[in-house]
Write a structure and sequence with these properties.
The chain is α/β, with parallel strands linked by helices. The protein contains ten helices and 16 strands. The strands form four sheets. Strands 1-2-4-3-5-16-6-15 form an eight-stranded mixed sheet, with helices on both faces. The structure holds zinc ion (2 copies).
Length: 399
Amino acid sequence: MAQNTIPLEEIRLLASGLFDETVRVRRDIHAHPELGFSEERTAGIAASCLSELGIEVFTGVAKTGVVGVLDGKTPGRTLLLRADMDALPLQELADVAFRSRVPGVMHACGHDGHTAVLISAARLLARLRDRLKGRVVFVFQPAEENLGGAKAMIDEGAFSGLGIEAALGLHLITLLPCGTVGLRPGPFMASVDLFRALILGEGGHGAMPGGSVDAIEIAAKVVSGLKAHLAGAITPGGRPLVNIGTIKGGTAPNIVADTVELEGTVRCMDDDARPALRQAMEAFLESVAKDAGGSYELAYTDGYPILVNDHHMTDIVRRTAQDLLGETRVFELEPTMASEDMAFFLRMVPGCFFFVGAGFGDPAMDYPHHSPRFVLNEDSLLVALQVLCTAAVRFLEGA
Ligand SMILES: [Zn+2]
Ligand SMILES: [Zn+2]
């Protein structure tokens, strides 16, 4: 079978030949961004490309998700390749010719690039079909930003019966310069859970507070004490990061507020610690509210689990990136407190989620993700395509 091995150089050349088309598709998607679970146009582009390639396509998975199944010439392993398609509710301020044509919606996280790269990966791997072993499942998922499109697809049973054994996904990232790859085996990205706490007091006159219970005073104690309380609740591996993102309460300067609403997130690097964090928050709210004569209601929602990269799959990506880019261009990153719903795929099967540098190496041009001025260095699309396809072929060939 050795003579059937597909050389790295061939994949590199095929990817280079697809670069202009990848940029074109990415710019088209960028100009027509769609929010989570509404990615109809984007999904249509992916689906029609897959079916033109003779790849079996399933559409409407978890509303707008697309799944393509490419079978190689000989049976073998099955690998899932994933891209997310959703944009963000943001007015674009980037000065590019292909600026968003949809007011208030923008691809400010690079998911337009992920989708374009995966479409090109389908083109590239379909060309190699006659020498490809096993099966590639292309997943274009909806709603990565907060809404958990990956979980919705899995819950719908979209992958049952496909025999998926491993998964690869990537994020283009402006924090790293173009031409580099960053990754980490084991726990890599944090879990995130969302909470909404309602602090309930008793309203009254600002001049005669007797008999009233000031919900703003209780909320102030919650805000100042919550982080320390949760930090003390668990083991060092699960050290949490709490953010209170909104606070709303009161109606007038001379009225004692009877209600304050707090919303926020709790992140940590240990899934086992998540129930304890929730309990600790509940206990803290209970004691602070009760001490002041008030009460509380807590809505606590499980968000994304921690993202854990498989060591073997991460090795495949690392070696591939080193071969393509050079050893000094591949970094082992520290765990990040950011979250990703790719974590759901990596709970389903072993896999690797890695970062592909998409920065210009120029602080004047490198804006953070979710910024209205976010711009991708499009050369990163080629790096992403080469690394993804080469790692995929190596896995399918038994690496
Ligand atoms: Zn994002
Ligand atoms: Zn993202």
